[in-house]
Structures are given as C-alpha cells and as structure tokens.
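Re-run with default settings, no changes from the original entry. Doing this only to confirm the output is reproducible before filing.
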Amino acid sequence: MTRTMHLTGDPDADRLLATDANALVAGMLLDQQVPMEKAFAGPAVIAERMGGFDVRRIADADPAEFAALCARTPAIHRYPKAMAERLQALCRVLVEDWGGSAASLIDAPSGAELKRRVQALPGFGEQKARALVALLGKQWGVTPEGWREAAGDYGLDGFRSVADVTDAESLARVRETKRAAKAAAKERR
C-alpha cells in the first residue's frame, strides 16, 4: 500500500512517516509544545544524523550522546533533552515488548486494544493515544473494528487534529478549529 503524508512540509520527512510506523509513533510522541511540522520532522532529523531511524540503536544509545544528537541545531524539539529521554524510553518499549516494530503494536484486533496498546507507551496519555488511533485509521488504513470509537472525537470526520491534515488547506482548517475551541473554552471560564 502506497500512502502519502503531509505533516511536515518536507517530502523526505513525510515519506518516512508514511512508510515507517516507528517514525510515525515517535513523531506523535514529539507532538507537544511545538508546531506539528517540527514534531513530525523530528524522526527524519534523527534518521539523517544516525544513518536511519533505528529504534534499537536509539534505545541502546548512550543517553548523553543521544541527547546531544537531538539538541544539535536544528534541535528536534524545543526541549531536546527531555524529548531525547522520552524517545529512548519509547524505543526501549518498542524493542522489549514489540520486537522493535510499532507495526506489530498497531496490528491490533480491535480499536479498543489498539488504543490500550498505544496508551501504554511512555509519553502517551488518553488524548495522544486517541489522536494516534485516528491518524492510523484515517491515513494509514489501520482500521480494526471500533477504531473510530476508540479515537473519540478525533475519529469523526472534519478537521479536528493531525489525523485530518492531508495538505496545506486541511492544516489551516485544523488550526482554525483548534483556535475556535480554545476561544470557546476561554469564554466558558
């Protein structure tokens, strides 16, 4: 199955996300407190610096050396040391529990099980797990029974999250939806 993604604005980084489940999961982990494009480009930056995105090499890397690699300009995140630690923790779980393959993790028998597996990963809470389930369903074709329910509102049609970003126009619509939701929440306070 050939898929395309448009999350970073960089065709090579998007190609990595479209073909490597490990990179996609790592990008979702990085998707906090930075623009989506920066977060999801992080795995490609690491891959360039390490000669590939290899969860085993990341898991086994010396923590100080990996943190320095992540902090080198351009840093993979605004908090490169903390994210380097989280990425190594994620990669260790992928290696130890999933044979080094997020593709094994996402091959779940149901949407509820997929969400449970994702939420058990380091750095993935309820909302991030739902968003990844939606992204997998909408853009990766990972659609076990009940995936939309497991994704919650992110599984609905519309422009709600990264799962709905397929081009520049949809990105703008997702950002507008998020701005409107924040404004409404602020008014309710």
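The chain has eleven helices and no strands. Residues 11-155 form a domain with the Endonuclease III; domain 1 fold (CATH 1.10.340.30).
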